Amino acid sequence: MSKLNDRVFGLVMLVVAVAYYYGATQFPVPFGGTEAVGPETFPKLLAVILAICSLYMIVKPDADNPWPVSRTFLELGIAVATLIVYALLLEPIGFILATTFAVGTLCWRMGAKPLRSYLTGLISGVVVYVLFTYGLELPLPLGPLEMS
Amino acid sequence: METLHYLSLGFGVALQPENLMFALIGCFIGTLIGALPGLGPANGVAILIPLAFTLGLPPETALIMLTAVYAGAMYGGRISSILLNIPGDEPAMMTCLDGYPMARKGKAAEALAISAIASFMGSLIATIGLILLAPILARFALTFGPAEYFALFVLAFATLGGITGKNPMKTLMAAAIGLIIATVGIDLSTGTQRYTFNVLELYEGVDFIIAIVGLFAISELLFFIEEKAGPGREMIKVNPLKLNWREIGSIFPTTLRSGVLGFIAGVLPGAGASLGSFITYTLEKKIVGKKGYFGEGDPRGVAAPEAGNNGASSGALVPMLTLGVPGSGTTAVLLAMLVSLNITPGPLMFTQNADLVWGVIAALLVGNFMLLLLNIPLVGVFVKILSVPPMYLLPIVTMVAFVGIYSISHSTFDLYFMIAFGVGGYILRKLEIPLVPVILGLLLGPEMEKNLRHAMQISDGDWSILWGSGLSIGLWLVAIIGLLLPVIVGPILRRRMQAAKAKTED
Predict the structure, then answer these.
(1) Is B192–A56 a contact, with Cβ atoms under 8 angstroms apart?
(2) What is the distance, to the nearest Å, from the Cα of residue B434 to the centroid of all Cα atoms in its chain?
(3) Domain limits of chain B?
(4) What ipTM score was computed for the predicted complex, to two decimals?
(5) What is the pTM of this model?
(6) What is the average pLDDT across B209-220?
């Protein structure tokens, strides 16, 4: 069984630990001179701990969990992309439309029928919008729907 | 006597109509959260925190609601264990062992009722334990200085992986990652900018609520997509309930033993609810011996783990409330709520915020009765909601998480941050690096650094102050044992738990 995951992650974290330590040495000296424990002491301590753990992971890695391949990986990519687009669209096109799109796409990709998926999205969007705007008096953006 | 005085004060807070209403809402939502597979208690409470904020609830009401959610989630976990053979949350795993066989025999309603009563007993015993133990521990904790606190934080991280944890180095690494993220932002005592890269949004540091919701909710969605668990599983139909008092009486000794044991497991660092339910089940099997038919639907096998895990979950509140050091993921999330309400958790809370602490404790008692009432007649409602397949449920839960985070600051930057944490959480879970220490690191980071600085100021830069008193040496020792024990005892315990789990799956 491959043990590459832990090794690669350990290596990445080791680089992070070194960069983080270097970052701590670059802090400007605080006003009033240096103290025994300045803003850099705790980060330096953490960098050392992280480096030790990383080295341990590189030297004694656990067996890998399989990463998702081709199709599933694509599905995960679609899900993350959907979430990013959701955040992107939330203000321009408003909460209800963005939610219809995002919840609908996620339901559909998880195996529901397209029509039912987007209907679920629309209904949940409207319900939450009404609940927030009228029930809790926290207005959510409405986008172009605001005109009509 | 002092305790009784405070407790009556607490009931005064908990019995206000508004607080009662929010406790009831919390109990209901909590049971749902616990019942739905893929929406664990920590995740559920995390999603609700931003909502509690935007509602503008007073601190005690917000905390009462979330504690009710927490207690409810422990009740709810059993429903899917019994009907689907999938634990709704991790501690409910042992309930599958006898609950599912009982349901298959056409006794689903009885299994649900018995487990509700056992949950009630477990919680009740543990809440009484909490009332007795917490003030004593809080008074003791007042003697802690900064050096002791620093050691205590180290202890919390060292034992967080639990005795059943797989790789203590990974727990430590997770804690380091969390603490590192916590150092981003302007240093509070000197005003130095640390790792902000001149990004304005990073000046105030990383909001841990965004991190928590991202790490739990978004990574959970990704895991469900990967496992293609969209359509859900077939569920056993619930029969009409036939239960007499004699049967309830027969599980009484079981719940009593298991509740006490569960409470102890909850209070101790590193044990937690999962181990609590495991120990109680194993012990019950030993005590009953050959007379029982454990594994084939023995009611006592349903009662023991349920009383155990509910006892443990209330027990876990003891270190969280008295020391400000949570022992589990969900209590860590509750602590996040406290910190963001500007309440410093720890022993001082018992004197400075007495009405809040005792209000929450009293609400736990009241909530427990509500939960029992909710869970016996209304179990059908929960069963109905449980039959909604994850492919509709998880996208909606994700949407609620989005709305919650967005409504805190109305900034889409926070949403991207949350997604990034979600992807990061997914990768960490794949590598079997636990998420709870990351969150605890994020939460306790500033407090830990502050205590280190105070200790150093007292000693004028002499590091040996950190192990300068008997108490701190003791704490360090427990921390070291906490790190080493999983390596020695862990494999044995894990193998037993695996064996028990494997038995239900064939």
Answers:
(1) no
(2) 14
(3) 2-141+200-443
(4) 0.89
(5) 0.84
(6) 88
